[in-house]
Amino acid sequence: MTHLDLHERDSPDIKAAIVDVLFQSVLIAAGASVGPSVLDVFNTLVRHLRISLDKKSSDEATRIQEKKFEEAIINTIGEFANNLPDYQKIEIMMFVMAKFPQFEQEETVGIQMDVQLQTMLLKTLLKVATKYKTVNIANAFPQEFLFPLLRMSLFDDPAMRIIVQEILHTLIDRHDNAEKLKHVQVFKDISKAGFKLEKCKGSDTLFMKKYGMQFYWYLLENIKLESNKVDNFEALYCTITLICVEMTAKETVIELIRLALDMQNIATNNLSLPLTHKCAVHALVAAFMSFLAQVCELQQLQQYSLEVLEWRRKEAQHLLPEFAFNRKNRPARYILLIFSQNIFFV
């Protein structure tokens, strides 16, 4: 670490080689580090990450080397965190979060640099989060970590918002279901889709009773953002379905239904929302209601969902996931006004 400090002004490829040595020796370093020295290591690595971004080169070839150096730092932080106990991984994520700059500069250049730094710090958070194995949701989301993370989900940049959702996915998903929920789709029978389902723990129910409304409020605010792209809606779908799988009990299922209906209400009544966004939200809600009904074994809701989906296939295909989330060219005859058919969940 001292050697890296001494070569702060050297070329990015030399610094990347030094970081690579750190990466290779991280098992020894992690095993020998106790207490404050752990934060010292992360503080030094994050500082070098910031220096690299602050002094980024305008030369394309040099910038490629700098990016390799920055990625090497993130990978080393992740590998170091992998060898720490879980409680320290949460501490490291909170430590990295404290490094996020505030948008206080008035100059455009400064703001752009902050966006780049925050993107790299988010990638660092995600890398550490992938090393954490969630057992208890409350332990994974202490209040000091949860609230700032949820606030970050409303960043102006849509790519950054996706990374925040991916951090949530990694920490919520205890049964490796996230990969099956990356795309918005209607599951005809989730029992045949390979999902791993487990009864919600009492501690998770208490967590959702305490913090569920905060989750839902930020999800609704995300739905309203006009800069959303297809990937943003898919990331939000993955988040709410993972909440359904991991943290929903009879006591909290009604709140998820209300969340879905509130999302539909936004798509129906928000006049500033682009038409493609309205289609996407209605399709997302339809897929989620069908999924929720099956996971929670709500037969009447499942039957009603099937009826709504069937009517949409006949009269409003633009409100179905296979159309609204189709990245290819869409048939012009299906671009209809969304309010011409009242085929919603009521």
Structural class: mainly alpha
Q: Give a count of the beta strands, DSSP E runs of length 2 or more.
A: 0
Largest beta-sheet characterization: none
Radius of gyration: 22 Å
Strand portion: under 5%
Model description:
- This protein is mostly helical and 346 residues long.
- The protein has 2 domains: 1-132; 134-346, no CATH class.
- Helices cover 66% and strands 0% of the residues.
- The chain contains 16 helices and no strands.
- The chain has helices spanning 2-6, 12-24, 26-32, 36-54, 60-82, 86-97, 108-129, 137-140, 143-152, 158-172, 202-224, 230-247, 253-269, 275-295, 299-315, 321-324.
- Helix 2 (12-24) packs parallel to helix 5 (60-82) and helix 6 (86-97) packs across helix 9 (143-152).
Topology:
Blueprint: H1 2-6, H2 12-24, H3 26-32, H4 36-54, H5 60-82, H6 86-97, H7 108-129, H8 137-140, H9 143-152, H10 158-172, H11 202-224, H12 230-247, H13 253-269, H14 275-295, H15 299-315, H16 321-324
Give the key terms.
single chain; globular
Q: Short summary of the structure?
A:
With 346 residues, the protein is mostly helical.
